[in-house]
């Protein structure tokens, strides 16, 4: 891993590696300062803020010029990125005239020259455009989830309000971008679904419907188990970004008290409830405290049509998490939270242990307990279903992969090839490191397999992949 | 009190007979359920009416004194008349043979014709009962048992009267019902009915206690497996259902009345006259009259008015009297003619004004499906036994009866759910929740869900534009795979493009729909994909070349056409040793097209040997 190697290489080896890093990130609207001398008005957000004003204006101006200039070649598809020796710039126009720009420094290898002076070498071809363009788009989606659209902020309070919101959001959010560990999965922005038998799924449906009935102000519900989605009452696109937030930000932050278990000191600080394991991940920490604040994150969904603002209540019992979303115009009271806790807590606790039990039974039946022999990534564009045996569990800081970054890059390259044509395709690559990498695209599905069989020939590799499809994907229409 | 509040009624067509008076004696035979009206000791006529007889029997016999009892044998073959306490006369000369005798001191006896069991009251107190069971000309003695009297009697006189004992079959089992009156010494709050279970084999056992919570004069009936207790003082009745959950102490179950006490529904009878031709207006029938005599299981006779009624239970009024829907279902599902009411309860709980909560709806569905599953299982084991050839082995194998309590998917679909899903004013969340709850319940009882229910779910989701919900249901295989469902999905593609993928996946899983998959792919001009698919499953030797060449030509992609054409040339070569098409394949047009585009020399040459 690039990140891990950075420190290790310092002593013995002659090389030092530096992973890609965020150089700057800014948002501007050219309409806000069209005249000379007013250029500063265009800038809505700029990171790092310490940069001198004129440099900010210069950088924004340069981007504006590039976008304008390239537009003449391709009016419908403006430039998405600019490659330079030292860095790469990514452009995104999520709302009309609002531009977001992210500048990423290329990875660096620092070598000792003969005379002992360090020589810096930029690796210009390492970064994948699609990966970082997707990261930039995600930045906007995440902002929109918690703040609504840029336009809405303008309507509500003009440029001042928009600037405040951008500052408040991105100041924190940019610190959580881990650019060194972005890969194919960032392109997909997929959702991992929890595999479940029909009966348990129906029980969960029944539970959700009952909760929505008893807690009548609940508008939408989402249900997750083990950080994997089981049900979404939200539309797909909104769920996609909410899922990202839950699994990469909210859940990891709450992992410690859970691992600590029920009787640990950490646990003891939690509001004691002997009947169930339920607790709020957002909102009040202690329901017994009459002063407890019932503040929930506000989220915005269906921004294209109904534009709904909602309070996000996340409630968890054991490995089962439920998101209840209620209309933002209704302020949830402590009484409501207590009622929710008393209704949802016991039922969710039972349901969570049911799911766990059923899951273990199914695992035993299907014999999938054993480590998967294949390293693969699967993605379905239709339902955003994503499955990876390459990625380990995500931690708040990095997503760990079990394969070499070079192989991950090959996967990204294959994906770029797939994007270029509509037809079904299959690409087989023999990597330098004696791995075979296979990419298959069938209708809306993509499958990437990494095989560690250096003596295998093309036919054998093809057979292996067929075997994988027959065992893992026999219940879908996936062309051989 | 509205008519919708009475849950007991007298039957519409009672048996009418000449009422009792000094010259007309009336007798009732419990075995044949016949009423005898004997005028002047029979000299001026005996009229016999049974509940099912269209034509009453009437005859005359010599008046040889007061008749104490008169009965027919089964099928009205032999008449027996008792005029003194020790002689029975058969009008025709017959031989009677003593088959068996038992020597017991008997206070009184009671015979239950349905079960062919006679109870004899023995001992001084009369509370030790000795049952005998008659079958095929034999008489078997069952173990005797003791009825617990309310308080230890001080005297040694007869303490158990036959008036307080009844025998009836409830849910297929014979019970001795004992009406235990309130005793001041005990701290009971009122009288109670004690049910002793009297099995054909084994000892009689005290099983249930029905708490009446009142005192006074009572009479018992058993209707549709319900114990009905009439109370004369208040002129009301209560009903008990021993299958409903009661308070169980380990040996005995305590029951309270299922419903609040109500009078039998008031009714009218024509003014009693010698001939019922009078057009006089009917008069109200006096209910709970002291001249009423009650017989088991469901007979009420008014000798003074000359009527015999069967008591009946009305189910519809009970729906509003039993607010607990789960208990209501338990009750209704045990009743003989419950289906209409059960379905109306289901419809009612899904109306906007009378809407039940989802947990209640789930409970109701579960109870219905439990009965449904029981029947399906019985049906299945019957079929299995038939197949195993047990049908010859004896009369034990009987097709399971489908009672009215069996409410299947088709009933629910036709009478409840399809109308429900049409309701415009119904919130869509509730609508979907109810449909899913029914499917959940069916699955829980491992009942295969019928395709039309899945279709209803899909149509409802589509109507409300809930495509993503539909997608998720399909993803978790909640809606079972079937060809019709796959076709339905295909038809949704223009509204929701992912339906195409969902449909193909479903066809693939069915594994019997390979032809359909090829058709779908060809219709999408995915000729190569279709060919690869059919080759993958080994079906490429049997497909029509013309169909694929047609599709390839339509794409206007010459290279694709070339590939497909070459594939079939190779197939021809492999199968027939020659790459050219046979006339039967009707590919002349495509061969010409191939030549036109790629030239004659591009055609594959036959391999020479």
Kindly describe this structure.
The complex is a heterodimer of chains A (480) and B (609). Helices cover 38% and strands 24% of the residues of chain A. Chain A is α+β, with helices and mostly antiparallel strands and 480 residues long. In chain A, strands 9, 10, 11, 12, 13 and 14 form a 6-stranded antiparallel sheet that branches. In chain A, helix 3 crosses helix 7 (236-253) and helix 6 packs antiparallel against helix 10 (334-366). Mean pLDDT of chain A is 86; it is low at 1-12 and 262-270. Chain B is 31% helix and 22% strand. In chain B, helix 6 (428-444) packs antiparallel against helix 7 (451-463). The longest helix of chain B is centred in the middle third of the chain and has 30 residues, at 358-387. Chains A and B meet through helix 6 of A and helix 4, helix 6, helix 8, helix 10 and helix 12 of B. Chain B: It holds the Pfam family RMC1_C. Chain B: InterPro entries: RMC1, RMC1_C, RMC1_N. Chain B: It comes from Phocoena sinus.
